[in-house]
Amino acid sequence: MPPVLKRRELGRALLARQMLLERADATPEEAITRLAGMQAQAPYAPYFGLWTRLQRFGADDLADALTGRRLVRIALMRSTVHLVTAAEYRSLRTWVQPALDRELDTAFKKALAGLDRAAVAKAGRVLLDERHLTPKELGQALNERWPGREPRALATVVRNLVPLVQVPPRAVWGVGGATRYATAATWTGTPPAPAPDPERIVLRYLAAFGPASVKDVQTWAGLTRLHAVLERLRPRLAVFRDEHGVELFDLPDAPRPCADAPAPVRFLPEYDNLLASHADRTRVISNDARRRVTTRNGMRATFLVDGQVGGAWKLHTDRTSATLEIGSFLPLSAAERAEVEAEGARLLEFAAPGAARDLRLTT
């Protein structure tokens, strides 16, 4: 029988790979490669996600990578916006195409009935290679050719069938702007890969999120029927079981710290992939906490205490001040409270270095 890994052991393994036990000495591009991308619907979430994981990180480090086209924001896993390297988008985007197709077939089935989607995608590609457009502008332009069709649905056809990036100044720290699309091939200078490499991508996932079950991989990717991929990889992998008997796969030499390895307080941004990339997420968040942080569109910003989600946080800023509101779900010891406050003060210093700062912790 394969060895059993308990919940805390799985949690520590995940935190180690996510650079949340020890901050890493890495660039944003190196970190995002190790993480197999960062979820990024909220434009500034990756700044906090990298700050909490890296030894040295300034907002300009990520902003420069975006404006320099080394990192891109593009719809990938689960049809959600991810931040990835310009090189990485090529294989990932091709691999997740079935999830993007499925979204069109479900959320927009009625609006797209009888429509030649390929023709819409081709027209959208031509428009976006001429100039960058917002989703609304793209939908309106396509509506001129397909009158009577919902502009939002037309724009989503292009977004899901043509790899599109959200171009700066969107998500540039301190600047920001509306979502504007360009084709990824034009923006990066390279087209998507003609065919995916599922084995390579699953190995990348395991390096960032393992040990993991088949359902875990499918949850992260937004894809189904990945059992065959894991079976092909089985001879190269270590195999375990969790406490419920579920089979788990992992890279043989990947870190698997002991259950009692120290896990410092860490603040996570909203939508962080740490909390969205497993079918069973109890290794880092209880079912009760998960209900409390899940919103209609995703997940609130959270913080970890002893390797588990201990509460949520929200930052309020204006031109002269910043307030960090921290709400703990459970009572904190004096030592835990002090650590949460100290880490929260660091977050405030990063987010609002020149402002009057206030921290409010409630339990």
Overall mean pLDDT score? 96
* Helical amount: 25-40%
**What profile does the largest beta sheet have?**
5 strands, mixed
Distance between the termini: 43 Å
Count of DSSP H/I helices: 15
Overall, the morphology is globular
Question: Element order, helices and strands?
Answer: HHEHHEEHHHHHEEHHHHEEEHEEEHE
Give the strand order of the largest sheet, numbering strands 1, 2, ... along the chain.
8-9-10-11-12
Give the quaternary arrangement of the chains: single chain
Parts with pLDDT < 50 across at least 5 consecutive residues: none
| Cα-based radius of gyration, to the nearest Å | 21 Å
Beta-strand content = 15-25%
The number of distinct β-strands equals 12
Secondary structure class reads alpha+beta
Please describe the topology of this protein.
Layout: H1 7-17, H2 28-34, E1 38-39, H3 45-51, H4 59-67, E2 71-75, E3 81-85, H5 89-95, H6 97-107, H7 117-130, H8 135-145, H9 151-161, E4 164-166, E5 181-183, H10 184-188, H11 198-209, H12 214-221, H13 227-233, E6 238-241, E7 247-250, E8 266-268, H14 287-293, E9 302-305, E10 308-317, E11 321-328, H15 334-351, E12 356-362
Helix pairs in contact: 6-9, 7-9, 8-9
